[in-house]
């Protein structure tokens, strides 16, 4: 593996050699792509067609966010190119992802305007870091049910403000409140150091590989019928993806597949609210439908759509859709005659005592020691310092899209049905394995805090269902193939509950 020599900065080694992950602190972004590509048992010769130009850190952090951005986006684009080459029986086209563009895209939900107005904050009124009796916890309250549930758990009044919530939290021990939240399907995490995280059973249970791919059953060999016609304008034109997701990571996987031509039907519930600042960005490329799985009619709609779906993506709490006959086991049994890909996004992965728990990027950063380590490197005396973007979410989204395309290639060459698992915890573990920059050296690079900081060549302006939108283009380039979104965001539930015809 190549040495990381271009930064001229000292790397902080991974000192605890008893950790359950490999030390990858000498990896370059290209090394990471090669490592994951080979771990997925994909054709080695394809790796020669990837270029990852650019030097620098990318974003102000002790963590190698630029490395993670360029590698995860590069991996997804290379897999799209692999599918394109296979379906057209041609050599793999050249793929390129520039560092600066990639790190800017890792902040895409913050770097857009609609009718010249930037997105509002996605954070709720009581979220963030709170002092407890023995430390700190972070509360996530993007959705009203999380906010209201937290107030109820704490014994607050329904209209409690942040001050009242903070007073109640201060009476709890951190891990007790975290456990109580888990039991109530809420999202509150205790702030831990690396040492405190590493002794947990869940820390050891998180896989030391960011994409888990397994064959669930045998089946016909070949690409799905919609991808069998050659000379398509995009790599995944004809792929049908049914996506159940909210917030960032899982929606980003569908957005990535859509950039390469997939027909992505984004299914949301009419009982959950719109998340305007997030949904506007991650709705690009997709058609959007709403259906209520609490009703027979809603289940019938999904059952009909599944008949012609090639990929089923879900990013809800693990197991929550299984009672609807939407578990991987149920889907594989139903579609054994043709095969299906089941892709799951979770907070902590399929194994360990926390495998059924909800979680979000900011909470995984909090509970795993990342926020504490970042604060120690920054050196301002704060108990926690978050990363400058939702890096775990973004990388997880690209890794899930990559896993889906790897499974698609496996279907084409081996046949069968496949399951893909990606978790925020797994991305955290991989990012940590890359090492951190010594002291405050990683914070010297400038940030991108508004769209005015973004070079114009990385932007595109398009009409949407909400007004004229200027946003970050996709950072991947594939020689001779179109990359980008055909569909712009619109209100949730705007489209017909049917697949596009060719």
Question: Can you describe what's shown?
Answer:
It is a single chain. This protein has 502 residues and is α/β, with parallel strands linked by helices. It has one domain: 3-Layer(aba) Sandwich (Rossmann fold). Helices cover 33% and strands 15% of the residues. It is built from 16 helices and 18 strands. Residues 1-11 have low confidence and may be disordered.
Short description:
The protein is an alpha/beta fold and 502 residues long. The chain has helices at 29-39, 65-88, 99-105, 144-154, 162-169, 174-183, 194-198, 201-205, 249-259, 276-282, 296-306, 328-334, 361-367, 370-378, 391-413, 424-433, and strands spanning 11-12, 50-51, 95-97, 113-114, 128-131, 136-139, 188-190, 212-217, 240-244, 263-268, 287-290, 311-314, 341-346, 417-423, 436-437, 459-464, 467-472, 476-478.
Considering the chains and any ligands shown, give keywords for the structure.
single chain; 502 residues; alpha/beta; Rossmann fold; 7-stranded mixed beta sheet; 18 strands; globular
Give a topology summary:
Layout: E1 11-12, H1 29-39, E2 50-51, H2 65-88, E3 95-97, H3 99-105, E4 113-114, E5 128-131, E6 136-139, H4 144-154, H5 162-169, H6 174-183, E7 188-190, H7 194-198, H8 201-205, E8 212-217, E9 240-244, H9 249-259, E10 263-268, H10 276-282, E11 287-290, H11 296-306, E12 311-314, H12 328-334, E13 341-346, H13 361-367, H14 370-378, H15 391-413, E14 417-423, H16 424-433, E15 436-437, E16 459-464, E17 467-472, E18 476-478
Parallel strand pairs: 2-3, 9-10, 9-12, 10-11, 12-13, 13-14
Antiparallel strand pairs: 1-15, 3-18, 4-17, 5-6, 6-7, 8-14, 16-17
């Amino acid at each position: 593996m190549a040495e990381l020599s271009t930064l001229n900065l000292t790397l902080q080694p991974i000192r605890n050699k008893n950790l359950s992950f490999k030390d990858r602190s000498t990896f370059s972004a290209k090394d990471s792509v090669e490592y994951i590509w080979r771990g997925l048992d994909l054709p080695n010769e394809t790796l020669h067609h990837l270029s990852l130009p650019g030097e620098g850190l990318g974003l102000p952090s002790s963590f190698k966010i630029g490395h993670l951005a360029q590698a995860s986006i590069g991996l997804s684009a290379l897999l799209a190119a692999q599918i394109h080459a296979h379906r057209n029986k041609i050599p793999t086209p050249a793929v390129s992802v520039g560092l600066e563009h990639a790190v800017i895209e890792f902040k895409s939900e913050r770097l857009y305007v609609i009718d010249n107005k930037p997105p509002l904050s996605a954070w709720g009124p009581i979220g963030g870091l709170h002092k407890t009796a023995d430390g700190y916890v972070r509360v996530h309250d993007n959705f009203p049910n999380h906010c209201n549930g937290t107030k109820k758990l704490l014994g607050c009044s329904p209209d409690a403000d942040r001050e009242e919530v903070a007073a109640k939290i201060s009476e709890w021990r951190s891990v007790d409140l975290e456990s109580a939240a888990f039991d109530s399907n809420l999202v509150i995490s205790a702030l831990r150091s690396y040492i405190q995280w590493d002794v947990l059973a869940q820390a050891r249970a998180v896989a030391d590989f960011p994409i888990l791919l397994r064959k669930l059953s045998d089946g016909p060999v070949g690409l799905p019928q919609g991808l069998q016609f050659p000379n398509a304008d995009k790599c995944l034109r004809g792929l049908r993806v049914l996506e159940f997701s909210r917030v960032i990571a899982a929606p980003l996987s569908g957005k990535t597949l859509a950039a390469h031509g997939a027909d992505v039907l984004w299914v949301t519930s009419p009982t959950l609210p719109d998340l305007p600042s997030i949904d506007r960005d991650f709705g690009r490329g997709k058609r959007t439908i709403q259906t209520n799985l609490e009703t027979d009619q809603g289940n019938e709609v999904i059952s009909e759509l599944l008949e012609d779906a090639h990929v089923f993506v879900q990013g809800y709490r693990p197991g929550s859709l299984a009672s609807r006959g939407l578990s991987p086991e149920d889907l594989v049994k139903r579609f054994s005659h043709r095969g299906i890909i089941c892709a799951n996004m979770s907070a902590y992965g399929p194994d360990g005592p926390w495998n059924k728990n909800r979680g979000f990027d900011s909470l995984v950063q909090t509970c795993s020691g990342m926020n504490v380590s970042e604060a120690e490197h920054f050196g301002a005396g704060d108990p926690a310092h978050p990363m400058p973007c939702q890096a775990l979410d973004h990388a997880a989204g690209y890794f899930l899209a990559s896993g889906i395309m790897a499974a698609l290639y496996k279907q084409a060459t081996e046949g069968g049905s496949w399951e893909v698992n990606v978790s925020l915890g797994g991305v955290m573990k991989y990012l940590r394995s890359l090492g951190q920059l010594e002291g405050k050296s990683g914070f010297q690079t400038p940030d991108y805090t508004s769209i005015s900081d973004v070079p114009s060549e990385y932007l595109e302006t398009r009409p949407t269902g909400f007004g004229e939108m200027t946003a970050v283009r996709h950072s991947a380039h594939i020689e001779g193939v179109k990359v980008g979104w055909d569909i712009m965001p619109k209100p949730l539930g705007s489209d017909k509950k049917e697949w596009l015809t060719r």
